[in-house]
UniProtKB/TrEMBL annotation:
It comes from the Archaea. Its main location: membrane. This is LemA family protein. The keyword Transferase does not apply. It is a single-pass membrane protein. Belongs to the LemA family. It comes from Methanosarcina flavescens. It is found in: Membrane. One of its GO terms (cellular component) is membrane.
């Protein structure tokens, strides 16, 4: 009788282990998929920027430093090796693009250029998708991190080598209220 109870308990523990492990695998894959969605949008932005820069070059020749900064920021995003590096480079690129659109306000003929307007629209849509993808990624990471840190999943997670994932965070400078001057 004791042997049968022990076997039943081992079978239940084994099934519980498998269920928890499979759930953790699903959650880890969701995190990786969420990151891939951010990557897709970053690639889309990466592809749009050269066209935007070329369009602006013709109108704003003396804005060379800004255009160079955008090019450098774009390269930094694509060469980033970690989530935190990607977040930092992406945030910098977003701020340089905001500067570009602010500069474009000084060029009425550029603002009226159909190609520029379409590129600006496409880029704004992409920025919105990036923001949504970041939010989705962070929500997915939060659920995953909670799972690997709470009982009983934390036991399986530590045995099987599941590690906490980093959130896609905004840099301190972007958290501050911007100064508006008239």
């Amino acid at each position: 009788m004791l042997l049968e109870i022990s076997i039943i308990i081992l079978i239940i523990l084994g099934l519980l282990f498998v269920i928890i492990y499979n759930d953790l695998i699903k959650q880890r894959n969701r995190v990786e998929n969420a990151w891939a969605q951010i990557d897709v949008q970053l690639k889309r932005r990466y592809d749009l920027i050269p066209n935007l820069v070329e369009t602006v070059k013709g109108y704003a020749k003396h804005e060379k430093t800004l255009l160079e900064d955008i090019t450098k920021a774009r390269a930094a995003v694509m060469s980033a090796n970690s989530i935190s590096e990607t977040a930092e480079a992406s945030n910098y690129l977003s701020s340089t693009l905001k500067s570009l659109f602010a500069v474009a306000e000084n060029y009425p003929e550029l603002k009226a250029n159909q190609n520029f307007m379409q590129l600006q629209k496409d880029l704004m849509e992409t920025e919105n998708k990036i923001a949504y993808s970041r939010q989705f990624y962070n929500d997915t990471v939060m659920k995953y991190n909670i799972s690997i840190q709470t009982i009983p999943k934390n036991i399986v997670a530590s045995l099987m080598g599941f590690k906490k994932k980093d959130l896609f965070e905004t840099q301190q400078a972007e958290r501050e209220t911007p100064k508006v001057k008239f």
